[in-house]
From TrEMBL:
Protein name according to UniProt: Oxidoreductase
NCBIfam families given in the database record: PRK11579.1
Tagged with keyword Oxidoreductase: yes
Source superkingdom: Bacteria
Annotated keywords: Oxidoreductase
Family membership: Belongs to the Gfo/Idh/MocA family.
Gene3D superfamilies with a match to the protein in the record: Dihydrodipicolinate Reductase, domain 2, NAD(P)-binding Rossmann-like Domain
Transmembrane segments: none
Length: 362
């Protein structure tokens, strides 16, 4: 078992593909109190080119067995998330899983049960809770800037007309655009408005030769409030990131947070300009005057700082298992609703709904 009083906490990373290389390794390295100690990857040369002083191990089992490790980050293909997370928890490690948490609600519940049995912190990397665009929208929704919110539309569009031979674009459990971008948008909706009454969805394959879904339109219903989540891989002109309507006006946020682009470009988290967003939210109130509202900077490091504190017993888990279970319920229900062609309720128990609400209201 790891020592919860250790400083810094020693972190192992499983997987050095896009998520591990672009997001997790730099963010762990940039967070005070965390030390990136070892990476499990078949791409040994790539890891050592970026992190020449780190140990590289060949298998997750070898990483989990390393002495002195406190936590592991699972950044592998989606189908491996649940079994790797459970194995790491049983090895006595705290665990971060990249989104989506698991393939379905049953796996999510199983992982949460193991975490509780072994008294380990289990969390999901929902980094886009700390996007500049979302932080700005959340600020004004909570402040009542446009009165009672009646409609929110969120879009995450891309233009990638060529189908690539990679697991994310396959027709397989955990693959497809909804499981890639849906976890971000649905999690943000849950953070803003709570658990929906029903979920409606339409998923499609629109690109030539596509095997996995590459277009999604999902509607979450909250009484009279409607939340529309849209993503596409055939949008050469991307629509606004957020449009929010309310009884006193509307909010419009054109462009998305820039942290992913900054990380792709090699900017180190916390460097000058990190997370800054010059694209203001536009406020319309029915008059001839449009107000521009600045947005706070985004900072994905906050997730890892909060997680560090949770492991050390100094604060709550930033994304606890019950929130991950609820999000998996939304993702799974959207797929079922698309197949059924009708709105469906979430497959959560009364106890799970109550637990989720208690955590959310804090």
């Amino acid at each position: 078992m790891s020592n919860p009083s250790r400083w810094p906490l020693r972190v192992g990373l499983v997987g050095y593909g896009f998520a591990g290389r672009i997001f997790h390794a730099p963010l762990v390295h940039a967070t005070p109190g965390l030390e990136l100690a070892a990476i499990c990857s078949s791409r040994r040369a790539d890891v050592l080119a970026d992190w020449p002083h780190l140990d590289v191990v060949a298998t997750p089992e070898a990483l989990f067995a390393r002495p002195g490790l406190d936590m592991v980050v699972i950044a592998t293909p989606n189908r491996t998330h649940a079994p790797l997370a459970i194995a790491a928890l049983r090895a006595g490690l705290h665990v971060v899983v990249d989104k989506p948490f698991t393939l379905n609600v049953a796996q999510a519940r199983a992982a949460a049960t193991v975490a509780k049995a072994h008294d380990r912190v289990l969390s999901v990397f929902q980094n886009r809770r700390w996007d500049s665009d979302f932080l700005g929208i959340r600020q004004h929704v909570r402040a009542g800037t446009i009165g009672r919110v009646t409609e929110l539309e969120a879009r995450m569009d891309r233009f990638r007309p060529q189908v690539r031979a990679r697991w994310r674009e396959m027709d397989a459990p955990g693959s497809g655009l909804w499981f890639d971008l849906g976890p971000h948008m649905a999690d943000q909706a849950l953070q803003l408005f709570g658990l929906p009454d029903t979920v409606q969805a339409s998923l499609a394959r629109q690109r030539d030769h596509a095997s996995g879904t590459d277009w999604a339109q999902v509607m979450l219903t909250y009484g009279s409030l409607r939340v529309s989540l849209h993503c596409s891989l055939l949008a050469a002109w991307a629509g606004p990131r957020f449009v929010v309507h309310g009884t006193h006006g509307s909010l419009l946020k054109h462009h998305a947070d820039q942290q992913e682009n900054q990380l792709r470009a090699g900017l180190q988290p916390g460097a000058p300009g990190w997370g800054l967003d010059q694209d203001d939210i536009m406020l319309f109130d029915g008059s001839d005057t449009t107000r521009h509202l600045p947005v706070p900077p985004g900072d994905y490091r906050i997730y890892y700082a909060l997680l560090r504190d949770a492991i050390l017993g100094r604060g709550p888990n930033p994304v606890p298992p019950i929130q991950a279970i609820a999000l998996m319920a939304v993702l799974e229900t959207a797929m079922a609703a698309s197949t059924a062609g009708r709105a469906l309720a979430l497959p959560l128990t009364g106890a799970e709904c109550q637990q989720w609400t208690q955590v959310w209201e804090k």
